[in-house]
Amino acid sequence: MVEILNGSVLKEEILEDLTSKIKISTDGYQKAPGLATILIGDDEASKMYIRMKHEICRRLSIYSLDVHIPIECTIENIKEEIQKLNSNDKIDGILLQLPLPLKFRKDLDDLLNFIAPNKDVDGLTPHNMGLCMMGDEAFAAATPKGILKLLEKAEITIEGKEVVIINRTIVIGKPLAMMFLKRNGTVTVCHSKTKNLDFHMKRADILVSGTGNLNFITADKIKNGVVIIDAGINKNEEGKLCGDVDFEGVKDKCSAITPVPGGIGPMTLAMLMQNTYNSFLNRISE
User: Fold this and answer.
1) Looking at the structure, do residues 259 and 150 belong to the same domain, yes or no?
2) Do strands 234-235 and 241-242 pair parallel, antiparallel, or not at all (unpaired)?
3) Residue 88: which pLDDT band, with cuts at 50, 70 and 90?
4) Within a domain: residue 220?
5) Residue 243: inside a domain, yes or no?
6) Active-site positions?
7) Do 104 and 201 share a structural domain?
8) What percent of the chain has pLDDT over 90?
9) Which CATH number goes with the domain that contains 55?
10) Does 133 map to a domain?
11) Where does the Tetrahydrofolate dehydrogenase/cyclohydrolase catalytic domain start and stop, copy by copy (predicted)?
């Protein structure tokens, strides 16, 4: 029988543990952890994700700051706001909400590099990406970290397995590949230019998809017993949130699968809060 990898349940376990740890730390240090989010423009989906992050901060008693920069701003304006947060002692974590508006996407690397590495709770600065490549996952990207945590909780073996990742972004594919390699998985990273993609999917023991294409993974493209991690976000014709995977069509061929919603999304939020708390502890001991 297929195992449903429920990220919502595990998220609650993680947040409950963090709540008690944060209370003890806040009482002891007389200071709460702090997270700042930066939203450029007025994208509705991004605004929704920002609200979710601040709601969890309130639940955990994490101080949170919502920085909203109008779309008419310049790159210099954004850097000024980042620098203020770099210098703000109340802030332990800085999150630049992605994706950026089209006019700034060419500047992504420059903006990420402007965030102080010890406040980069998204794990996307060159410094922290480099640490992840070297095996230090303390501030690894939140989504890959959440994926590995979910697999670990389910006691799914990675060592020796054929791992296929259909995503090469710095948010998912690149750091996740390094993290699977650390655990002795045999990793193939696929993307829009990959030839014979079906061949790679068919041989995967663990298949991670983050393409943003509805029903991209169907039963004929996978082998029996595969573990599927669906990191895609889409909406169907009825407006219902879905992933990349034809969930009902493939689940009976899987040994384990994540649902959408309720799979990787909640784990990303949990790992973001974990990274914020880790940053708080590191900075307060400096």
Assistant:
1) yes
2) antiparallel
3) very high
4) yes
5) yes
6) 53, 97, 122
7) no
8) 95
9) 3.40.50.10860
10) no
11) 5-122
Domain extent at residue 39: 29-117
pLDDT digits (tens, 9 = 90+) for 265-283: 999 999 999 999 999 999 9
Q: Does residue 286 have a pLDDT over 80?
A: no
Closest C-alpha to 166, from 174, 156, 154, 178: 174
Within-domain flag for 16:
no
Residue 237 has pLDDT above 90, yes or no: no
Question: Do residues 172 and 217 both lie within one domain?
Answer: yes
Check which CATH number belongs to the domain holding 199 and give it. Answer: 3.40.50.720
Do 158 and 254 lie in a common domain? yes
**58-86, pLDDT tens digit by residue?**
999 999 999 999 999 999 999 999 999 99
Domain count for the chain: 2
Asked whether residue 160 falls in the same domain as residue 203, the answer is yes
- Model confidence, pTM: 0.95
In angstroms, the CA 282 to CA 286 distance is 6
The pLDDT mean for the chain works out to: 96
Q: What is the reported pLDDT for 236?
A: 87
The 3-state secondary structure of the chain reads CCEECCHHHHHHHHHHHHHHHHHHHHHHHCCCCEEEEEEECCCHHHHHHHHHHHHHHHHHCCEEEEEEECCCCCHHHHHHHHHHHHHCCCCCEEEECCCCCHHHHHHHHHHHHHCCHHHCCCCCCHHHHHHHHCCCCCCCCHHHHHHHHHHHHCCCCCCCCEEEEECCCCCCHHHHHHHHHHCCCEEEEECCCCCCHHHHHHCCCEEEECCCCCCCECHHHCCCCEEEEECCCEECCCCCEECCECHHHHHHHEEEECCCCCCHHHHHHHHHHHHHHHHHHHHHCC
> What confidence tens digit (pLDDT) does each residue in 146-183 have?
999 999 999 999 999 999 999 999 999 999 999 999 99
Same domain, 164 and 244: yes
Q: Do 146 and 257 belong to one domain?
A: yes
